[in-house]
Amino acid sequence: MDPLPIRSLEFLGGLAAPGGWRPDPSLPEIAFAGRSNVGKSSLLNRLVRHKTLARVSKSPGRTREINFFRINDQFILVDLPGYGYARVSKEAKALWRPLIDGYFNTSPQLRGVVQLLDVRHDPTDDDLGMLGRLADIGVPTLIVVTKIDKLSPTRAAARVDALATMLSVDQDAIVPVSSETGEGRDELAEALVALLDQPAWRNLEPTT
Ligand code: GTP
Ligand code: MG
User: Which domains does the chain have, with CATH numbers?
Assistant: First the structure.
């Protein structure tokens, strides 16, 4: 049985600058974070069984805004802009941090963050920095390893093992996925449904 049947999808809009428009924070939210090109937008599309809801690109740095998608009139998926892409302009890089901080500060209904890592690469300093910040603010974080179709099943399993060791987390705490084949979609959906059932991770007073 599908742990997350999709009945309706709606693109709500994008947050482009700190303090700008964002959807009413009344529904629970789950955000997707990770390096540029790691596959956030692709995974979001695979999760909701829609090919083109979130924009996917071969050139990294595609998603510059924080994009909000309402699913089943029930919760909101948030596609965060990726980090760590060298060729993004200095101005764009300088904007990234306040944009993300601004998002976290205005998201009292956030239930969790899905942190994506490419199965072929060790976590970068940027990845570790992001994971550190998520731990600091105390938001539940789910680690998802992407693009497992790029390796043989044996190699992929060994890499998931290695990544778990590097991050000092249990191997069972990591969800391996492929947006190409759909492998891991239902496992991810199940984990997100469980996160959505949790109370909001903190009651935030919006900071101005
Ligand atoms: P930014 O928006 O730049 O932060 O990137 P993103 O993390 O949203 O990545 P995106 O989903 O746009 O995917 C980047 C590239 O990786 C695209 O060419 C995708 O087709 C490809 N890709 C994403 N997921 C997978 C996967 O599971 N398997 C394979 N083989 N390719 C993938
Ligand atoms: Mg993207």
Answer: 9-19+27-197 (3.40.50.300)
DSSP reduced 3-state for 72: coil
Q: Which of 42, 62, 88, 180 to mutate to test the pocket of ligand 1 (most atoms within 8 A of CB)?
A: 42
Q: Which residues contact residue 23 at a Cβ distance below 8 angstroms, ignoring those fewer than 6 apart? A: 12, 13, 68, 70, 76
Q: Name residues whose C-beta falls within 8 Å of residue 165's C-beta, 6 or more positions apart in sequence.
A: none
CA–CA separation, 197 and 54 (whole Å): 24
Helix (H, G, I), strand (E, B) or coil at 34: coil
User: Which residues have CB under 8 Å from 115's CB, separation 6+?
Assistant: 33, 34, 127, 130, 131, 134, 141, 142, 143, 144
Q: What is the pLDDT of residues 126-173, one digit of tens each?
A: 999 999 999 999 999 999 999 999 999 999 999 999 999 999 998 888
- What is the C-alpha to C-alpha distance for residues 148 and 156, in angstroms, rounded to an integer? 6
SS3 category, 60? coil
Contact predicate 82/32, CB 8 Å = no
Instruction: Give the CA distances from residue 90 to residues 64, 66, 84, 93, 101, in Å, rounded to whole numbers and listed in that order.
Output: 13, 18, 12, 5, 18
**134 Cα: distance to centroid of ligand 2 (angstroms):** 19
Which residue has the least CA distance to atom 24 on ligand 1?
39
Cβ neighbours for 131, distance < 8 A, ≥ 6 positions apart: 115, 123, 141, 167
